Amino acid sequence: MTHTLPPQIMDLIGHYGDFGIFAAMFLESSFFPLPSELVVAAAGAIGLPLTAIVIFGSLGATLGAAVGYAIGRYAGLPVVLKFGKYVFITPARMAKAEAFAVKHGAWGVLLGRLLPIIPFKVFSIASGITRIPFFPFILFTFIGVGPRLYLLAVFGAFLMKYTKYAIIALAAALAVWGIVVLTRRFLPSKSA
Predict the structure, then answer these.
(1) Residue 151: pLDDT above 70?
(2) Which residues make Cβ contacts (< 8 Å) with residue 160, sequence separation at least 6?
């Protein structure tokens, strides 16, 4: 698990602890292409306290989301599309995030934070572009990231504690999936 992150990120988390989680989540939520799921799971895997991960991760993600919101609100869509490609923000992702933000408004922020459908930074920028009111945006961001961070940290701790069993379970799931795919592909269907 921890070998999948760049050593600089692991050093940031391991050496600076709570502040490292805060900084990593701030960067990921604002503009930097950093996989928050791996960062938080790695923090859980190396044994940082769950409460610290949730508190400092939520604060970092919320402040980073405010930066992303400001980018969307004040720079606008043309600038985001022009430079977004450098941080993996594609026009398709922006269109999906904008449509979601317009359809669900501030409540969509809460849903978007709880579910990993759209990356934090893309959704934050889209929220700024569509001018979702700032206070509900920040409030629902803070409320929404906590449960997600908790689950990811627990997942990371679980993987480190039960690595052998996790690998066996993953191998079994892949084997079952492979059997299902091969069966459907090579056995004739009964309707034929």
Answers:
(1) yes
(2) 1, 44, 45, 46, 47
